[in-house]
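Bit of a strange request maybe. I'm writing a small parser for structure token strings and I need a real example to test against, not something I typed by hand. Could someone generate the tokens for this chain?
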Amino acid sequence: MGQSIIVVDAFADQPFTGNPAAVCVLNQPEDERWMQLVAREMNLSETAFLFHEGDAFRLRWFTPTVEVDLCGHATLASAHVLWESGRLPTTEAARFQTRSGLLTASRSGDRIVLDFPAVDAQACDAPPGLAEAIGAPIGYTAKNAFDYLVELGNETVVRTLRPDFVRLATLPARGVMVTSRSDDPAFDFVSRFFAPSFGIPEDPVTGSAHCCLGPHWRDRLGKSALVGHQVSARGGVVRVEVRGDRVHLGGNAITIMRGELSA
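Reply from user aminoacidic:
Good idea to test on real output. This should exercise your parser:
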């Protein structure tokens, strides 16, 4: 019998929106090279691999080109698969051992809530070429352990950006998140996320970026509970609550495809 693989749209309220992730709940531990090849074959922004280990699941995330340290949407998708498949009771929190420590997911009505570390960004000078790579005048610029954060003038600028991905790939970071206040009162802020050096020109909805966007907009707007709208072509909504050095990320998930790997 082959290895099952499931594709889930995460941070999605309807099919074919949000961010698709492939999820493999492994029958047995697999080597890193095989996992990277599967991720390349799936060609999604992230493929998640889980293996039951003690009272938790070992969870690893791969883009088509590299393993990453933190990923929100593929963690949300993984929890969804565990509950939907009956591997974990829906009343029980999903516990994941990862390269970023212990992460958990729980259900709140029809929504999944992730408990992630806050990843604050510190103000910095924009690196040479950043404005040219983004293709718009940049405002406040900051950097955290993974990415650059750049504030732009307004939502229209964020939505209409056409970045130079070749230039962006040369920056010393995993990626660049661009953000502004939202024009729509239903949302507090908007964002987009680009990570071409990791094989992801534009990520549709980026949970890990909201670990930084949440604290940033908490400080700007003076409230800890926020709603972010990632305005990629697919689009998605991330509900963010900043709790000290942790961030809760809430969203929905929809199973799109079930299959089996034969190699």
